[in-house]
Specification:
This protein has 186 residues and is mainly alpha-helical. The chain has a single domain, classed as Four Helix Bundle (Hemerythrin (Met), subunit A) (Up-down Bundle), CATH 1.20.120.740. It has helices spanning 5-16, 22-35, 42-48, 55-78, 94-113, 126-138, 150-174. Helix 2 packs across helix 4 (55-78) and helix 5 (94-113) packs parallel to helix 7 (150-174). It starts with a helix and ends in a 12-residue tail after the last helix.
């Protein structure tokens, strides 16, 4: 099995003895970024809360999670739609990928919740509120059946795309407006 960002993070989390998987971790980081709660350490404390690994494993994990946050922030800030949820690759079975997508959305909603009262959900535009409600539904997703059909793959791909674009939308809606210069150029 080849190394991917997903498997690399999974291995780092395992060495640190965390209870969160890579999809949930990335979702939590991205939710905190969208909600503007990434400056604090609550998201990091949550992800490493019950870690049982040694200090070296925890230090490496902490570093990798901070890098993951920085890379995710840069992708979201770029606004070029290059952002994507960290999920298993297509070589992984659909049931496992679907479960990981549900975990990603659970983590995202938790990360969003870290903003607490600062986040005015009822003040969100309709489309942004709908994305959050849909993520709650996706967080409960599961794959039923024994055989994976082409339409299941298509549906999964469409849902991942919806999540990807929805996160970008939420990030852009929830970030404070950039300060514009007070003077005008003529």
């Amino acid at each position: 099995m080849s190394s991917t960002p997903f498997t690399d993070l999974r291995d780092t989390l395992a060495r640190a003895g965390t209870v969160c998987g890579p999809a949930e971790c990335h979702g939590t980081v991205c939710g905190a970024l969208c909600a503007g709660a990434d400056g604090g350490s609550a998201w990091l404390e949550h992800l490493l809360d019950e870690a049982t690994g040694g200090e070296a494993g925890l230090k490496a994990c902490r570093q990798e999670l901070m890098t993951l946050r920085d890379v995710s922030r840069a992708l979201l800030e770029a606004g070029t739609l290059e952002f994507a949820p960290l999920l298993p690759d297509d070589e992984t079975g659909l049931a496992e990928r679907t479960a990981a997508l549900g975990e990603w959305c659970q983590g995202f909603l938790y990360g969003m919740g870290l903003a607490g009262e600062r986040l005015q959900l009822d003040a969100l535009p309709d489309e942004a509120g709908e994305v959050l409600r849909d993520m709650g539904q996706i967080a409960q997703a599961g794959f039923e059946g024994d055989a994976e059909a082409e339409e299941d793959e298509t549906a999964y791909t469409e849902i991942v795309e919806y999540v990807r674009v929805g996160v970008q939308l939420l990030y852009e809606e929830l970030q404070p407006a950039s300060a514009t210069p007070s003077g005008t150029l003529h």
